[in-house]
């Protein structure tokens, strides 16, 4: 009996350790190999200029709205082929008044009758848009002048259904540990998106900057996350999603780990729910390449906290072995660093490893809570951007 339990816990230990190593080490290595030796390319139309509707989602964005609209109006794209629509989710801080000041320059305001969230706002605005291509943006995302040109040229290929831009994060003040950790995480994400796009399809959109063919937009539930669910729906229809690194937008990072934590919980809970909304996307025979990318990049990463728990629990049950005692000691030291970073914020500034370990644990705790909220059906349709002083409950 004891021998059987030992085998069971050893199996759990090595299986969990294998999943964690695969997600953070094996998968990036596999991506690099597949992108180099088995890429898929799509033809590009250098002068492709379809009619474009830029949809800017906003809730209480008075602090950034004027600069966002000035930036949008300065985009290098034919003015008669670009319309700008601001979708206001019942903003209460003067955002709508700022948008109306730009009406004589062609900017349109679509205001929700009641606050229902971003997805419901897009359901209202998309039927009113005139463009053949829809570009989705956040109010604080500042575009480089050629960003839309870089996005839409991919639609010259009939296989491309959506294109994701390169959202970059900056901190105008001195960099905080949160900003530095998020910046490192985002560099890895960008690297992975480039290679996923080369192999088959980037696995999701980005609310700051991504575009789709108008006819591929499907109405959303208020609790849906549009920049993940809609791309899944498009891929299930047989199209590809492309990452365009030269379509650049900039936005500020969250100023603290706590605000970043709330944002990630919301994203994971709603993104996990999107998989249930498009169950066919998890059929490995439908599109094997995309299935591999989706499961490796998203699903397994969201489940990492469960595997970390199994790894720790299995180590506890195998203390009779010196190897597993050392494994437990290393894990304990790792989590102790995260706890120190939580109790003593100054330690995160003084020693970068503590900041990175704390951020790693925070991200995985957010994934754990996000998964549990999804399983309970606790999905929030509305939210307050983390840069705003008014904060909502996670």
Describe the structure.
- This protein is α/β, with parallel strands linked by helices and 394 residues long.
- It has a domain of 241 residues: Spore Coat Polysaccharide Biosynthesis Protein SpsA, Chain A (Alpha-Beta Complex), CATH 3.90.550.
- The chain is built from 12 helices and 8 strands.
- An 8-stranded mixed sheet has the order 3-2-1-4-7-6-8-5.
- Strand 1, helix 2 and strand 2 form a beta-alpha-beta unit.
- Helix 1 packs across helix 6, helix 6 packs across helix 12 and helix 10 crosses helix 12.
- 41% of the residues are buried.
Fraction of residues in β-strands: 5-15%
Averaging pLDDT over every residue, what do you get?
A: 88
Question: CATH homologous superfamily of the domain at 52-292, by name?
Answer: Spore Coat Polysaccharide Biosynthesis Protein SpsA, Chain A
Low-confidence stretches: 389-394
**Total strand count, please?**
8
């Amino acid at each position: 009996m004891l021998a059987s339990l030992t085998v069971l816990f050893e199996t759990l230990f090595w299986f969990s350790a294998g999943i964690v190593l695969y997600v953070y080490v094996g998968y990036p290595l596999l991506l690099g190999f597949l992108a180099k030796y088995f890429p898929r390319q799509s033809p590009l139309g250098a002068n492709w200029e379809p009619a474009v509707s830029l949809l800017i989602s906003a809730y209480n964005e008075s602090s950034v709205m004027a600069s966002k609209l000035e930036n949008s109006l300065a985009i290098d794209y034919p003015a008669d082929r670009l319309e700008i629509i601001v979708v206001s989710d019942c903003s209460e801080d003067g955002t709508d008044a700022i948008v109306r000041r730009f009406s004589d320059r062609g900017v349109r305001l679509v205001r929700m009758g009641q606050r229902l969230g971003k997805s419901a706002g897009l359901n209202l605005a998309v039927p009113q848009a005139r463009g053949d291509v829809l570009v989705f943006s956040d109010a604080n995302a500042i575009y480089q002048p050629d960003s839309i040109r870089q996005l839409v040229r991919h639609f010259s290929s009939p296989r491309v259904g959506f294109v994701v831009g390169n959202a970059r994060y900056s901190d105008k003040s001195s960099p905080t540990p949160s900003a530095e950790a998020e910046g490192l995480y985002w560099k890895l994400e960008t690297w992975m998106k480039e290679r996923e796009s080369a192999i088959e399809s980037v696995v999701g959109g980005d609310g700051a900057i991504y575009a789709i063919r108008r006819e591929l937009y499907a109405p959303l539930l208020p609790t849906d996350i549009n920049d993940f669910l809609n791309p899944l729906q498009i891929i299930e229809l047989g199209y590809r999603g492309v990452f365009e690194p030269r379509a650049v937008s900039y936005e500020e990072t969250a100023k603290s780990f706590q605000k970043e934590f709330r944002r990630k919980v919301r994203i994971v809970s709603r993104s996990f729910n999107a998989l249930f909304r498009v169950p066919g996307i998890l059929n490995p025979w439908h599109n094997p390449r995309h299935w591999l990318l989706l499961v490796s990049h998203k699903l397994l990463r969201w489940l990492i906290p469960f595997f970390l728990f199994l790894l720790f629990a299995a180590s506890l049950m195998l203390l009779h072995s010196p190897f597993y005692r050392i494994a437990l000691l290393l894990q304990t030291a790792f989590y102790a660093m995260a706890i120190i970073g939580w109790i003593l914020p100054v330690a995160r500034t003084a020693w970068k490893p503590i900041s990175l370990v704390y951020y790693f644990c925070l991200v995985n705790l957010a994934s754990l809570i996000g998964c549990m909220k999804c399983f309970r059906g606790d999905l929030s349709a509305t939210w307050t951007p983390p840069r705003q002083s008014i904060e909502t409950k996670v």
